[in-house]
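User: Batch of two.

Assistant: Item 1 of 2:
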Amino acid sequence: MPAHRRSLPVAEFSARVDLATSVEWDQARTAIIGHEARRSTGAACVAAWRRITLTLIRPTGSGAAFEQAVGANLEQSGLTVGQQITIEAQSGVRTRLDFLTQDPLTGDIGCIECKASSTAPLTPNQTLAFPEIGQSGGTIVGAGKPGFPGGLQLPPTAVQILRGP
C-alpha cells in the first residue's frame, strides 16, 4: 500500500500527539473514524487530515510559550522572519521549521527549531531532514510565507535547535 494511503490507527494517533482539549480530541477521533469507516480517499480525506493536523495538533503549554518568546526576539532582531515553513529535503523528506530567517544585509538564511525542554525529542522527519538540510539545503514547499515564497531553494544551512530552560 502506498505511504500516502496508509491510515494511522486512532490509538496510535492519540499516543503521538498532544491535543489541546478533550473536546478537540473527540472531534478529531470522530472525523478519523468516519473517514476510516467510509474508506475515503482523495481530496476530501486529505482535506480532513490537514484540518485535523493543522488546527488540533499544535504546540501547547510551555512549547507554545517558548516558541512565541523566540519569535518575538527574532522579530526585534531586524531579520526577515517566517514562521512554520515546510521544507523538503533533497531526499523528499518534509519537515516544518518553526522559523526561517534572512539577514536583509547579507542574505544569509537561518533555520530554527524550538524545543521547550532539554528532553523534547525531534520528530522522525526532523531527525532525517535536519542533517540533510545542513548538507544540501532544501526547498520551501506550498505557498510559503511572506519573504519566503514556495519553491525557494535554500542553500545548505545548519538547523539550529533552540531549547528552553
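Item 2 of 2:
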Amino acid sequence: MQPSPWQRGPAEILEAALHMLRGQPSSSNRLTFILLDLAAEAVFRTYLTLPDDLVDSAISYKERKMASRGSFHNLVAATRSGAGERLSHVDLPEIEYFHSMRNTLYHYAGGITVGTDDVSRYASSVLQLLHELLGLDLRDEAPLDQEELRRVGASVKALDAAIQSLRHHTKLVIEKAEPGLLMPSVIHGFELLSDDSGVQNLHRQLRSYAELMEQAVVHPHAKRWLLELVEPYLEFASDTAIANARFLFALCRDPVNIYLLYIGAFLLPEGNIDRGYLYSSQDISIVEDEDEHILGLYSKAKDLLRWVKEGTARVSPEILRVFSDQIDMYVDRVNELAARLSAWTMPEGG
C-alpha cells in the first residue's frame, strides 16, 4: 500500500536510513543515526501539524501547531500530551536520549561514532513511532538486531558445513560403488562436457558422454541406464531429449550432481523419483527441481546458501528472517542425508 502524502516524507527518510543500515559497513553508522533522528523529528512534526480529522489528539490543533515550531523536546512533550495511550508501546525517553546522542555526533563529528546496536534500537523505536502516530507500518523492514544477525550467521555456517559434509560422504559412497567416476580423467571429462558451446557441438558432447560412462561405470544396469538418459542420435531426438542432454551436461559442472543422480537411482532409491520414470523422452530436470530427490535437495540447499550469502545486504530483514528458518530446515535435511550416506555399505556381491 502506498503511503499517504503526509506519511511519505518521514517514511522516505526512514527507509533511506534502513537501506544504509542493511547495506553499508559500520563506518556509516554515524550518518545512519543522524538520518534516523531526522526521521523521528519528521514524524513528530507531521503528527502535530495534521488537522483534527486526521489525528486523535487530546490537545487542540492550535496548540499542536505552535508546539511543532519548537525544539525536539517540545515536540516530544506536545506529542506525549496529545497522543496519550497511543504511545504506550513507544519508548519516548529512549528517543530523547538518542536525540541527545545525535547532537553530539552532529556537532562534534571528529572521531566520534555510534555502535550498531544503538543504531538498530533507534531504528526500531522510530519504526514504532511512525506506526503509532502516522499509521504507517514499516516494521517488517526493521533491521536485525545483533542476536538475530548472530543466529543468521550461525545458520549460514551450519548449512555450508552440512553441504560440505554431504559432498564428502557422497564421494565416499561413489568410491565404494563406482570408483571410476572419481578418476581425474573422468572429472576432467565432466568439465569439458559442461562447456555448452552450441548445437553444433552437441554431437561431440553426446559421444564424449557415452565414452565417459563406458569408461567409468562398472555395473551394467547403471551403465545402461545412464547411457539411456540421452538420445545418442540427434536426427531422431525430440526437443525434450535434446533439453535432457543439455541438462545432464550442465549437471557435470559439479560431478557431485552426477554422483547423487546415480546414488538416488541405485543405492538409496527410497524417497527419490523412480529411475524408471527417468529416460531420454521424459523431462529429467525434475530431479533438480524437486527437493524430495537427493539431487534436488543438494541443489536447492546450494542455491539457498548462495542466495543468502550474496543477498544479505540487499533484501529486507523480514525476508531474511523467513529464510533463516528455511536454512535451519535445510541444515537438518542435508545432515540427515549425509548421515544416511555415511552409514551406507556395499551389499554383498557388489
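The chain has two domains: 5-142, 148-343.
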